Amino acid sequence: MTVTVETLEKLQRRITLTLPVDSINGEVETRLKKLARTVKADGFRPGKVPISVVAQRYGYSVQYEVMNDKVGEAFNSAANEAKLRVAGAPKITQKDESAEGLMAFDATFEVYPEVKIGDLSQVSVERVSTEVTEAAIDKTVDILRKQRRTFQQRPAAEGAAETDRVTIDFEGKIDGEPFAGGKAEAFQFIVGEGQMLPQFDQGVRGMKAGDSKTFPVAFPADYQGQDVAGKEADFLVTMKKIEAQHLPEVNEAFVKTLGISAGTVESLRADVKKNLEREVKFRVLGRNKGAVMDALVGAAELDVPQALVDSETERMVESARADLKQRGVKDADKAPIPAELFSAQAERRVRLGLVVAELVRSHNLQAKPEQLQAHIEEMAQSYEKPAEVMRWYLSDRKRMAEVEAVVIESNVTAHVLGLAKVTDKALPFDELMTA
Fold it and tell me: In 112-236, which ranges are continuous DSSP H helix?
């Protein structure tokens, strides 16, 4: 086998492979003979089918397999000999001309780039921190109360107000014409909780059971229903029922309904604080990790293999289809999703992956077993049965690979923050949780 390696442009390379025709024909003949032992054909006993009949029926497919195998082996051998790190699958084309007794092929492909990371001590990164305040604990306790609230019908003389649950009939029209989704009967929502557009929410306030009234509602330009987006509708609303909410008092009885064995308000607040601190820690890590990754992308110089970008784009398209399928969209696996929607994001992911891999390699930032164990233990603590969650992770290689990736990114984040120009910023709890 003769090997020639050419550099085309940037990361593109081409290898010319030549293979003896005899070796290909010999392998085809060997495989056909092996196939003849098991193939069935009318008029012949098993194992007695003539090789000419087998060749007529299977010769093309066997030759195609042999060619693929031989060229693949030759390419891998040549790439290894030339110490090339191949990115993606090569494109193989047969050459029109070759020496007698030989077949020649061109393999065009890309190689992994050289990654140059600049001086990280000159990189600026904003590092955020967030404190779990008493106000944050109060807000979470209020959410728990709302989850267990009850409703009681208001007297007929009282109008709908903030936090009331109302039951209404409504019909909307645009320019006097009904529109899809603009009509409902016995529809319920809670006033003031953002379930409806602000004008609609305001329109029902003060209405009493049995009242009917018409008021305008302007749909935002970016409203999810494109047929009505940016338009104004007139809604005729009839109030059927108004119920006032009743929140449970925060006492020992309430605490026990949450499954907290100690049953005291103090133990509830301590439990809430512990859970919030865990959530805040992961969100802060994620926020700081994102800032570090942005800084790394800006500090690195490299050419990105298009083959890897195409592969990542395809993976993202398939992921989008899987998401649509999970939402119940019909024929989601055939949904026409343009690849260009993801190309920029895919390019960034590949670029960042190459930069992180180089930093991990050059600074020995691989995930250590004790780090993996600690990370799984920490995640498991938020579940009712931590031991089962840990076993669930430890028993699956794919899940462990995901954990390893997270730990490696954390190692990279800590490494960069230890070198970069860091500006610390205290982020309010609410801002962190709604980001």
Answer: 134-147, 198-204
Sequence-ordered list of residues with C-beta below 8 angstroms from that of 371, at least 6 positions apart, any chain: 407, 411
Range of the domain at 277: 255-434
CA dist., res. 412 & res. 363, Å (int): 9
Q: Whole-model pTM?
A: 0.73
CB 272 within 8 A of CB 137: yes
Burial group, residue 256, by CB count within 10 angstroms (0-12, 13-18, 19+): middle
Half-sphere exposure of 185 (CA within 13 A, CB side): 0
Could you say which of 222, 246, 270 is where a domain stops? 246
How many domains is the chain built from?
3
Contact 23, 103 (CB under 8 A): no
Which tens digits make up the pLDDT trace of 249-289? Answer: 999 889 988 888 778 899 999 999 999 999 999 999 999 99
369-412 per-position pLDDT tens digit: 999 999 999 888 888 788 998 999 999 899 999 999 999 999 99
